[in-house]
């Protein structure tokens, strides 16, 4: 592995700042992957979290090739998978990272790079139904946020995510100009999601109420920003929000894995389906490319209803 090199925050290239990576030199091959990281962020519209996951998989791949003195190809992929013994879903993610990178080299950069995943079977992974927080747990979680200095920001963000189903990266990228107003009050938001596709998301009553404590937001100002200290007016990072949510869940005695920003997105979608919303409408609201991705919420809704029915007492 190459020697660790620390780059002061002020001189850190923009791509690493956007990804929340302060020491790219600490991971071998990260700095060489900067152009690809920019491509995923700007051209493909991937979230910073997704890009970080791809970069870590590619770094693992390059380390494996170097340690075994192997050329990139299907045989090397099979050897790595045999060593790691990952679960099917993890294998799928790793193969997607390799496939995307080598297609980028061939199709975007014009380099003679063959896809090393060619001929590798994709394991089938059963869909895991999202474990959603119950209303009482949500109240406990929101009460626990009161222990945070930025309680107004965090409480508004949690309620907004629950009331819109936006990805956390989408919510944090919102500006005043993205709000659609009627009689001076926000009723919808224009969201730029994956693939730089714009969609209009109507605001539920919960989402509208979440925005009220933030006051009027103008033009290019961020919707969700720090309210005090030297960071006042700046938009927090995804990692900062995730960390604060985790700490609040732990204080409330709750499982932090069920109180991530993404779980609020799951809760929003499942509740829509339970209330009778059509899957194609939910698909458009969430910004899914395929209806197959949205169908998990139909299964989740059925499971929740079956669980509720199973609790009925015997007569």
Automatic annotation (TrEMBL):
Alphabetized Gene3D superfamilies for the sequence: 1.10.150.130, Intergrase catalytic core
Domain annotation Core-binding (CB): ranges: 27-106
InterPro entries, per the entry: CB (IPR044068), DNA_brk_join_enz (IPR011010), Integrase-like_cat_sf (IPR013762), Integrase_catalytic (IPR002104), Integrase_recombinase_N (IPR010998), Integrase_SAM-like_N (IPR004107), Tyrosine_recombinase_XerCD (IPR050090)
Alphabetical UniProt keywords: DNA integration, DNA recombination, DNA-binding
Cross-referenced Pfam families: Phage_int_SAM_1, Phage_integrase
SUPFAM superfamilies (UniProt xref): DNA breaking-rejoining enzymes (SSF56349)
Keyword DNA-binding tagged: yes
Boundaries of every Tyr recombinase domain copy: 128-310
GO biological process: DNA integration; DNA recombination
Domain of life: Bacteria
Example of a GO MF term: DNA binding
UniProt keyword DNA-binding, yes or no: yes
Name of protein: Integrase
Organism, scientific name: Thermus islandicus
């Amino acid at each position: 592995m190459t020697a660790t090199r620390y780059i002061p925050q002020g001189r850190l290239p923009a791509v690493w700042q956007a990804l929340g990576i302060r020491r790219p030199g600490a991971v071998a091959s990260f700095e060489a992957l900067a152009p690809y990281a920019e491509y995923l962020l700007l051209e493909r519209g991937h979230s910073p979290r997704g890009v970080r996951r791809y970069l870590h998989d590619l770094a693992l791949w390059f380390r494996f090739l170097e340690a075994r003195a192997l050329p990139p190809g299907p045989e090397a992929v099979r050897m790595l998978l045999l060593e790691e013994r990952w679960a099917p879903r993890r294998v799928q993610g790793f193969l997607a990272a390799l496939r995307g990178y080598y297609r980028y080299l061939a199709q975007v950069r014009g380099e003679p790079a063959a896809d090393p995943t060619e001929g590798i079977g994709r394991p089938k992974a059963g869909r895991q139904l999202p474990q959603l927080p119950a209303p009482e747990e949500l109240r406990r979680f929101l009460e626990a946020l009161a222990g945070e200095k930025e309680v107004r920001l965090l409480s508004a963000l949690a309620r907004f995510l629950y009331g819109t189903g936006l990805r956390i990266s989408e919510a944090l990228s919102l500006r005043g100009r993205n709000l659609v107003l009627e009689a001076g009050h926000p009723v919808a938001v224009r969201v730029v999601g994956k693939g730089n596709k714009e969609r209009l998301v109507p605001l539920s009553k919960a989402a509208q109420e979440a925005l009220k404590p933030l006051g009027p937001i103008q033009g290019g100002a961020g919707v969700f920003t720090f309210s005090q200290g030297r960071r006042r007016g700046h938009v927090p990072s995804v990692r900062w929000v995730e960390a604060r949510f985790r700490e609040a869940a732990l204080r409330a005695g709750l499982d932090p894995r069920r109180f991530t920003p993404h779980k609020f997105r799951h809760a929003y979608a499942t509740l829509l389906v339970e209330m009778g919303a059509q899957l194609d409408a939910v698909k458009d609201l969430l910004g899914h490319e395929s209806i197959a991705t949205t169908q998990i919420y139909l299964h989740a809704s059925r499971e929740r209803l079956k669980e509720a029915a199973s609790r009925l007492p015997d007569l």
